[in-house]
Amino acid sequence: MSSSEQRVRLEWDIEGVAVVTVSGAPPNPSTLACADQLADHLKTAREAGARIVVLASDVEGHWLGHASLKDLTALVRGEATSGSGTGFFRAADELSKQSMVSIAAISGDCGGGGCELGWACDLRIADESARFAQMEILAGLIPGLGGIARLTRLVGRTATAEIVLDGAPVSAQRFFELGALNRVVRKGSAKEAALAWARRLAKRPARALLLAKQVLAESEELPLSKSLANEQNRFQKIAATPEALALMDEIQASYDAGNAFPEQVAIDPFEAP
Questions:
Q1: Where are the domains of the chain?
Q2: For the segment 150-178, what is each residue's pLDDT rounded down to a tens digit?
Q3: pLDDT tens figures, 9-57
Q4: Residue 133: phi, psi to the nearest 5?
Q5: Parallel, antiparallel, or unpaired: how do β-strands 17-22 and 8-12 relate?
Q6: Of 90, 160, 223, 250, whose CB is crowded by the most CB atoms within 10 A?
Q7: Residues 6+ apart with CB under 8 A from 205
Q8: In this structure, which topology does domain 8-202 adopt according to CATH?
C-alpha cells in the first residue's frame, strides 16, 4: 500500500457517534501507513465532538490484521517504511482517551496489533465466526501494544499466558467466556450491533458516561482502598450537579410509579425482539 492510498474512512452515524472503518485486501494487513490513517481519523472524530466511536472493518471475514511484517522489519533495519511507525500507538491512545467511549465491532479474524487495538477499546462486540491470535511468538516476537498488559487485565494471567505463549487462534466464544468480549453476535451483524449500542450510549448523560470511563481507567492503576475512595469522591462531585439532581428526581418518580427499572434501560438491545 502506498502512503497516499486511503484505507480508512470516517463517517458519522448520529450526532456524537463516529464510525471509523478500515478496508483493504484480505487478510487486511495493517501497514504503518494504514495505522497512521486510523490514528488520524480517530483524533479527528474526537476533536469533532464524538462521544462514542465504533471501530469497524468492511473486509469480509477479516477485522484488523497483524502489523505489516514488511514494515516492521524495515523499521528495525532502518529502511524506508510506508508510515511513521507511531500510528498503532497513537490509535490505541485515542481509543483509550477519557473523552470518548470506544466500541470494537469485530467482524472477522484479527491478529497481533489488530487484536491489541481491540483490547484498547472500552467495549467489544464480535461476530461468532471471528478468531483472535496474538501470534507474535511465531515470528520470534512478543506483543508490544497491549497483547500482554491489557489482555492480562481483561482475562487474567493464566489465559493470557496460554494465548501469547502458544500463538494459536482463539475463537470469539472462548474469548467471550474469558471475559474479553461483551457480546458475540450472529455472523455479519457485529457492526449493526455495535451501532445500536453506540446509539444507546449516546443518549446517556455525557458527563456521567465519560466520568465513568475515567474512573474505570483510574481503578486499574490504584490499590482497592484508594480506588474506592476515588470512586466515592467522584460520585459526590457529580451527584451535586443540576443534571444529576434532576435525573435522580425523574427516576425516583418512576420508582414511585411501580417501575423496577428506569425506562431507558428496560430493554437490552441485544435481547430485544
A1: 8-202, 206-265
A2: 999 999 999 999 999 999 999 999 999 99
A3: 999 999 999 999 999 876 666 899 999 999 999 999 999 999 999 999 9
A4: -145, 120
A5: antiparallel
A6: 160
A7: 243, 244, 247
A8: 2-enoyl-CoA Hydratase; Chain A, domain 1 (3.90.226)
In this structure, what C-alpha cell is assigned to residue 12?
458519522
CA 168, 191, 1, 77 dihedral sign is negative
C-alpha cell at position 40: 488520524
Query: Cα(34)–Cα(145) distance, rounded to whole angstroms?
Result: 16
Distance in angstroms (rounded) separating the CA atoms of residues 114 and 69: 13
For cell 428526581, the residue is 249
Alpha-carbon separation of residue 217 from 27, 59, 82, 175, 211 (angstroms) = 32, 31, 33, 21, 10
Tell me whether residue 255 is exposed, middle or buried, using C-beta atoms within 10 angstroms of its C-beta: 0 to 12, 13 to 18, 19 or more: exposed
Q: How far is CA 173 from the centre of its chain?
A: 18
* Separation in Å, CA 239 to CA 41, 198, 212, 244, 245: 34, 24, 13, 6, 7
This prediction has a pTM of 0.93
Task: Locate 91 and state its grid cell.
Answer: 490509535
- Distance in angstroms (rounded) separating the CA atoms of residues 177 and 99: 29
Amino acid at 256: D
- Residues 21, 105 contacting (CB under 8 angstroms): no
- Listed residue (178, 181, 33, 158) closest to 105, CA to CA: 181
